[in-house]
Structure to design on (271 residues):
């Protein structure tokens, strides 16, 4: 247990039994989520922590739970290594730049949120009232961060029981991201904006234009919004290709380009 950070070590060494009946029932209920995750925790408190946002902790200070921030930080690093390993195995002859861009696409905030929604992770989160009212259970950022925290919890739990933590974490990653990884092609090495530009220039000999729609929300829920359009030379008519949101304007533009590519792939032609 000494391998855990102090904030988690204090959580897991409270004595036996450590929890009141209500808290224990909550921990027991996580067995259903474990089945969706494909991993059974030896220390289910780690999973409970991964699902706990700072806003909940601020409103329940006496409960003794840390927020998932420490696990999110750790899980982000585990995710990067697991994704790098998986992408390299999928494309063993890829160059460093191409592999880096494919990894980034595979574990983007949008991709993480998609996996989290498939797991119905939002319904398991412990949120403060403000986050609940703002609909944080379905925010891409909240879902992505929580999924990273869950991966960090899987790694630490596996290490606690003496298993190979990276092997276990990689298996978890492959189960959740496998379909997305299998669907990737070499051209995915290009970022969404570059791929959209190539398609529009080939089809219309025009370059997409990105328009900022401003910033919405406050604090951690703040998001930039953007739209990508196709504008003919000297034309005032607009063809809206896609829209997106992200933590920065650049992230919003990338999300808008991804939305446009999805529409094009589903034959929703912007012409």
């Amino acid at each position: 247990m000494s391998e855990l950070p102090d904030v988690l070590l204090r959580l897991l060494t409270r004595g036996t039994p450590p929890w009141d009946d209500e808290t224990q029932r909550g921990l027991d209920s996580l067995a259903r989520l474990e089945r969706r995750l494909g991993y059974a925790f030896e220390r289910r408190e780690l999973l409970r922590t991964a699902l706990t946002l700072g806003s909940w902790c601020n409103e329940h200070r006496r409960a003794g739970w840390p927020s998932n921030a420490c696990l999110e930080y750790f899980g982000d690093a585990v995710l990067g290594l697991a994704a790098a390993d998986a992408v390299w195995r999928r494309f063993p002859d890829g160059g460093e730049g191409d592999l880096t861009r494919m990894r980034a696409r595979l574990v983007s905030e949008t991709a993480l949120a998609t996996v989290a929604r498939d797991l119905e992770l939002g319904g398991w989160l412990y949120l403060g009232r403000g986050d609940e009212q703002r609909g944080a259970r379905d925010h891409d950022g909240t879902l992505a961060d929580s999924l990273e925290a869950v991966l960090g919890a899987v790694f630490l739990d596996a290490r606690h029981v003496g298993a190979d933590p990276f092997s276990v974490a990689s298996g978890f990653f492959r189960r959740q991201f496998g379909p997305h990884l299998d669907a990737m092609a070499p051209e995915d090495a290009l970022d969404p904006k570059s791929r959209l530009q190539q398609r529009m220039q080939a089809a219309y000999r025009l370059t997409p234009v990105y328009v900022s729609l401003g910033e919405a929300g406050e604090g951690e829920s703040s998001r930039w919004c953007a739209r990508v359009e196709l504008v003919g030379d000297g034309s005032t008519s607009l063809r809206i290709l896609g829209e997106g949101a992200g933590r920065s304007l650049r992230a919003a533009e990338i999300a808008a380009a991804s939305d446009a590519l999805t529409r094009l792939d589903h034959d929703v032609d912007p012409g």
Summary: The chain is about 55% helix and 10% strand. The chain has a mean pLDDT of 88. Strands lie at 209-216, 223-231, 238-246.
